[in-house]
Amino acid sequence: MAARIIESVDTEPAPLRIVLGSQALDATLGALRKRIEGFEAQRDLAASTDFPAGE
Fold this sequence. Notes:
Elements: H1 2-8, H2 22-41, H3 43-47
């Protein structure tokens, strides 16, 4: 793990976050998918607060 963390510094662009381990990656992706679903469910609400075009 330490070697992968050190190697990530040389990645261009360097990642802001890294997930170590396939189980951690699966859990992280699952949580992010649920979060995205929640945001997508708010699409109409978000659009209803837009300023009119040109303002």
